[in-house]
Structures are given as structure tokens and as C-alpha cells.
Design a protein that fits this description.
The complex is a heterodimer of chains A (83) and B (368).
Chain A lengths: L2 E7 L4 E7 L21 E6 L4 E6 L5 E6 L1 E4 L10
Antiparallel strand pairs in A: 1-2, 2-6, 3-4, 4-5
Chain B lengths: L3 E5 L5 E3 L4 E4 L4 E4 L5 E5 L11 E3 L6 E4 L26 E3 L10 E10 L9 E5 L9 E6 L2 E7 L4 E7 L9 E8 L4 E6 L2 E7 L16 E3 L8 E9 L23 E7 L6 E9 L3 H4 L3 E8 L13 H6 L2 E3 L2 E8 L8 E2 L2 E6 L17
Antiparallel strand pairs in B: 1-25, 2-19, 3-4, 4-24, 5-18, 6-7, 7-8, 8-17, 9-14, 9-18, 10-11, 10-17, 11-12, 12-13, 14-15, 15-16, 19-23, 20-22, 20-25, 21-23
Classes of the chains: A mainly beta (83), B mainly beta (368).
């Protein structure tokens, strides 16, 4: 299932979006290794400097994929005025 | 009878705040309202638990189970316990979800939280969730290196909503609330009552009607959550995107920690003598349990002025008497949300001063 990430910088009134169309698979970790205590095989981390979303294997921590984030500010009218 | 009795009724009582108290039975009682739409409440107030120890969920009396958890009975706002585990290894507390939160249209989850560190090593750690240890995940509230967020699993997309640039600090208690409304596809996150995230999503949030596929309610179900202290977990079956005043103490789920009712009795006499040792109520259970306390003020003035400590009913009786045309009573309701305090009708003895006439020797008037 696709996964959508929305990061909200309230102070600077900026939103960042990214979407993963399918689950990245970790070459090091078999899928059965993820059964216990976690329903997620990966997790995303916001990289501010690179304005990107890094996807790591939640078991071994390997970087699986890096996606550039789409940035939307208040001037685009998609940021709520009452934040 | 040596004194008159004044009945204490509440038709004219002033309630503070009016939303959290109500006058019932034609003014003969005041009760603390139950928290609207509250379907789950856990205080973590029990003393230190062993590994795999049971944890009582207060609202329905259900038991959850701690997995390697330590419930530290340490001071939290100077009162009771909280959920934290200091031992190494995974831990947490798991509850079976009440029916009201399975496939809900609206849900609000809130709790008090304190961090001893904000460093999760880059990993997302769920604070409270229905996303782990089950086959069909629904939602999860998390921290990731000092940023807060919520994950939603819908039938069309999996969402991660997360803050950027949040300035949390360690050692400070925060009130965190997350919620969603499927009818308007909205998700919100509040920190100390202020909205820090409000977004839209699409699809239906997943859940299972089959117990074997259903995610339980998990609290701090992770190793890294050793950095987290958590308490007063509440789940409501409603949604609001309006900012709010959070409970000001973790141990009291009411917005005003101790709602108050004030009633003024008018004796009709100047300098009336109120006999506090005769102050009684038809049911004193909540007084005896420490759930209702009082302050009094007697004066010629119809406006009350209360000061000093809250008193128990027996302390008030020991005061003896007070003088003034008016007796003002302030009732403070103290509850952790489990117990609905009820103040019943009462009465107090009164002696009008003008009935207390000193006896004089008879005057002999000579008649000529």
C-alpha cells in the first residue's frame, strides 16, 4: 500500500510531502524477521539539510531509499491561516 | 428546640466551571459530571508492578498487562504514580480495546508525557498506539528525535503526519492529544492544548472485528521508551479541532482540577449565630472519602469571601460557630475521574442573636 508522509513546520509555515508507492524491501533482512513487536518494516526520517525523506530498514537501520520532499508554504494557500 | 435549622439546597448555587458540575433533582443535589464521551481511562496509579504485572484500567475496571514494565510509584505533581520503565529490554502495557474505540468514526487520545531524553536514535517510537502486536494496524502516536506525530492506516493509504522544528525539552510534563474524524477526514495533534498539526486524510481507518487480527491499545511498547514517563491516558469517542485548556494536573482529568460550587444561606437576621457543629448532609460518603471539601465565610454581606485551606466536614464542625447574616459555603469536588462525587441536601443550625436576651433583675418601681 502506498504511504504518504506529511511533515509540518509550524514555525515557518511550511509543509513537506512525500509518497512511497510501494514498500522498499531490505536486502539484508528477511520479511519474517519483522513479525514480532512491529508492523513496520521501514521508517522514514526527515532530513532537513537535504530536504529529503530517508527510508531506513526498521530492523537493521540500512538506508533503503531517499526521496526528495515536495515543499509547500503559506503563499501556496495550503497552509492553514490559524496555525 | 434550642436553635432553628436552615436547609441547604442548591437551586441558586454558583458552579465553577458550569460545564463540569450540574444541579440535579430539583436543587437537592450537585454532582460532578462524568467526562463526556470518555471510553477509556488509565491512571497507572498502582504501586510498583512485577514483570507481567496487571495494570487496572480504571474506567471499566479492565486489566491490562505490563510486559517487562515497571510502574514507578514516584511523585508526579506530588501525588501518585505513572508509567515508566527503567529496566533494560522491551516493555509496555497492553490493553484489549473497549468496543467504543473499535472502528470509531471519531476518536481523541490524550495523555500526560515527560521525556528524560529526546534522542530516539533516529527511530520512530510509539507512545500510545493500536499499530503493534496485531495484524491490522489502525493508528499510532509517536516521537522521533524530539518530533511528535501520528500514523494512520487507511484502506487507501498509510499516512505519517509529523511535526518539524518542535522545541520540546526534557524533564517537563506535556499534555499531548491526538484525534481524527473520519466524516471530515481530519487529523489533529495538540500539545498543551495548542494545535500543532491539522491535516486531511482519505480513506477509512482500518481495524478488525476479529479479536485475533485486532491491535490492542499499547502504551510505551518499546525499548527506547525508557526515556518516557506517561500517565492519565484517556480515550474519548468524540473529535474537536478546537484548542482547549488541558487538565492542569496530571492526576485530575477535569479542566479545572477541583470544580467548585458556592451556595449562600441567608438567615434573615443580623449577626446570626451559625452552629457549625450541627452541619449535616443526608449522605456524607463523599465527604468522608475526601472527595468533597469545604471553605466557609459568614458575614453581613451577601458576597462571599473565601480564604484559607480546604477543610473536611469534621474540621468544619470543630470550628464551633460563625456569626453573620449570611453563611457562604464553598464545596470543592475532588475526583480522579473514576468517581462521580455527589453533594446531597444538608442543614445547619442557626440562632438569631435577637433571641438571646440577657436576663435582668426585675426593676421595682415605687408607686405613690
Amino acid at each position: 500500500m502506498p504511504r504518504k508522509f506529511v511533515f509540518i513546520d509550524q514555525k515557518n509555515r511550511i509543509k513537506y510531502f512525500a509518497q512511497l508507492e510501494k514498500e522498499p524491501l531490505c536486502p539484508n533482512c528477511p520479511s519474517r524477521a519483522f513479525r514480532a513487536f512491529s508492523s513496520q518494516k521501514f521508517q522514514g526520517k526527515f532530513n532537513f539539510e537535504r530536504s529529503s525523506l530517508e527510508i531506513f530498514c526498521s530492523r537493521c537501520g540500512s538506508l533503503l531509499v531517499e526521496i526528495p520532499l515536495e515543499k509547500i508554504g503559506a503563499e501556496d494557500g495550503l497552509f492553514r491561516e490559524d496555525y | 428546640m434550642a436553635y432553628l435549622e436552615k436547609i441547604i439546597r442548591y437551586n441558586q448555587a454558583e458552579l465553577m466551571p458550569a460545564e463540569e458540575l450540574e444541579i440535579i433533582e430539583n436543587g437537592s443535589k450537585i454532582q460532578l459530571k462524568p467526562l463526556n464521551n470518555l471510553v477509556f481511562l488509565c491512571h497507572f496509579d498502582q504501586p510498583r508492578q512485577d514483570i507481567m504485572g496487571p495494570v487496572k484500567e480504571e474506567l471499566s475496571g479492565k486489566l491490562g498487562f505490563g510486559i517487562g514494565a515497571v510502574l514507578a510509584n514516584q511523585a508526579k505533581f506530588g501525588t501518585t504514580g505513572l508509567l515508566h520503565y527503567a529496566s533494560s529490554g522491551a516493555g509496555g502495557v497492553v490493553f484489549s480495546p473497549p468496543q467504543e474505540i473499535i472502528s470509531p468514526n471519531q476518536l481523541m487520545i490524550d495523555f500526560w508525557i515527560k521525556f528524560s531524553s529526546l534522542d530516539t536514535g533516529g527511530e520512530k517510537r510509539y507512545l500510545v498506539d493500536r499499530a503493534q502486536s496485531g495484524n491490522i494496524p489502525s493508528w499510532g502516536i509517536f516521537i522521533q528525535d524530539g518530533e511528535l506525530g501520528i500514523d494512520l492506516w487507511t484502506d487507501v493509504l498509510t499516512y505519517t503526519f509529523q511535526t518539524v522544528g518542535l522545541s520540546l525539552t526534557t524533564g517537563q510534563w506535556y499534555h499531548l492529544r491526538a484525534g481524527f474524524d473520519q466524516s471530515i477526514d481530519q487529523v489533529v495533534l495538540f500539545l498543551d492544548g495548542s494545535r500543532i498539526l491539522e491535516e486531511n486524510f482519505s480513506g477509512v481507518i482500518m481495524d478488525s472485528s476479529q479479536v485475533q487480527d485486532m491491535c490492542p491499545i499499547n502504551c510505551l511498547l518499546s525499548e527506547v521508551n525508557q526515556i518516557v514517563y506517561l500517565d492519565e491516558l484517556r480515550i474519548f469517542n468524540f473529535f474537536t479541532n478546537q484548542e482547549f485548556t488541558p487538565p492542569s494536573q496530571a492526576t485530575s482529568p477535569y479542566s479545572s482540577n477541583q470544580p467548585k460550587a458556592v451556595v449562600s444561606l441567608d438567615s434573615g437576621f443580623s449577626q446570626a449565630n451559625w452552629l457549625l457543629n450541627t452541619l449535616n448532609f443526608t449522605d456524607e460518603t463523599d465527604f468522608e472519602a475526601g472527595g468533597i471539601k469545604l471553605r466557609l465565610n459568614a458575614s453581613e454581606n451577601s458576597t462571599p469571601e473565601f480564604s484559607g485551606e480546604l477543610l473536611t466536614l469534621s474540621q468544619v464542625r470543630a470550628l464551633g460557630s460563625l456569626n453573620g447574616r449570611y453563611l457562604h459555603l464553598e464545596f470543592t469536588f475532588i475526583s480522579d475521574g473514576n468517581v462521580q462525587r455527589i453533594l446531597p441536601v444538608g442543614w445547619v443550625g442557626i440562632k438569631p442573636q435577637n433571641l438571646v436576651i440577657s436576663r435582668r433583675a426585675p426593676e421595682i418601681i415605687r408607686r405613690y
